[in-house]
Amino acid sequence: MESLGKTMILIGGLIMIMGLVMILGGKIGLGKLPGDIFYKKGNVTFYFPIITSILLSIVLSILLNLFYRR
Q1: Taking the domains of the chain in order of start, what are their residue ranges?
Q2: Nearest-angstrom CA–CA distance, 33 and 50
Q3: Which of 2, 26, 30, 37 has the lowest CB atom count within 10 Å?
Q4: How far apart are CA 38 and CA 33, in angstroms?
């Protein structure tokens, strides 16, 4: 049970960090980068943040490689 508790705390911390990144990211323009696809016509809106996703993937890959390098 102890390892389950530690895992739940870790997951909760990660969710909290992701929430903070989303809040702060919107304030600095993350999600509105050139290359993000936004289509609006009538009642239909389609938004796909492809460049933002690529940028976050690169940053997270670098951070995880730094922290989990053996």
Answers
A1: 1-28, 31-70
A2: 9
A3: 2
A4: 11
